[in-house]
Amino acid sequence: MKKILIGFLVSAAIAAPLAQAQQAAAAPDAKTAAAVHELLDAIHYRDMMRNMMGQMARQMPQMMQQSAAATINADKSLSAEQRKAKLDKLAAELPKVSASMERLMNDPSLVDDMMKEMVPLYARHFTADEIRQLTAFYHSPVGAKALSVMPQLMMEGMQLGQRVIMPRVQKMAAELEKDQPKAK
C-alpha cells in the first residue's frame, strides 16, 4: 500500500510545478474566456469529466490492487508467509482506499475546479477565433463522433498506459526497495 501511495505522491510532485505554472498565467480576456466556455459546453466537458471520474473511481481500486499485488509477489526478499501477510493487509486496506478514491472522484466540486482551470489552459494555447473554430468542429458530424468515442479512447489509452508503464514502475520500486536498509 505504501508503494501505491508513493506512486501517487510522485505523480502529485511532478504535477504540482505544472499546476503552479498554469496558475501563474494571466487570466484570459473576457472574449476568449467566453469562447472557451462555449467550447466546453460544445464538447460536453462537464458530463465527460463526471463520466470519466466515475469510471476512474470504479477502475482505480482494481488497478491499485493488481499493481500492489504484483509488487508484493515480485519481491524476492519476502517469504511466503510475509507475502501472504502483505497481501492480506492489502486486501484489508483496499476497501478504505477505494471508498476514499470514490468520494474524491465523485465530488462535484472536482469537475467545477477542473472547468475553472480549463479556461486559462485553452486561452494559453488558442486564440478566441481558434476556439470558435474548434467549437464549430465539435458541432459537426465528425466532431460529434469524436466526442462520442473520446471517453472510450481515453479509458483504453489509460489501460494501455497502465499495461506498459506498471511493469516498469514495479521494477523501479523493487530496485528502490533493494537499496533501502532492511529493518531489524
Concise structural overview:
The protein is mainly α. The chain contains 7 helices and no strands.
Number of DSSP E strands: 0
Shape assignment: elongated
| Percent of residues in helices | over 70%
Portion in beta strands? under 5%
Helix/strand-derived category reads mainly alpha
Rg, rounded, reads 21 Å
Please report the number of helical segments.
7
Average predicted local confidence, pLDDT: 83
Please tell me about this protein's structure:
The structure is a single chain. By secondary structure, the chain is mainly alpha-helical. Helix content is 88%, strand content 0%. The protein has helices spanning 2-24, 30-42, 45-74, 80-105, 108-125, 128-139, 141-179. Helix 2 packs parallel to helix 6 (128-139), helix 3 (45-74) packs across helix 5 (108-125) and helix 6 crosses helix 7 (141-179).
Q: Top keywords for this entry?
A:
disordered N terminus, elongated, 184 residues
What is the secondary structure topology, with strand pairs?
Elements: H1 2-24, H2 30-42, H3 45-74, H4 80-105, H5 108-125, H6 128-139, H7 141-179
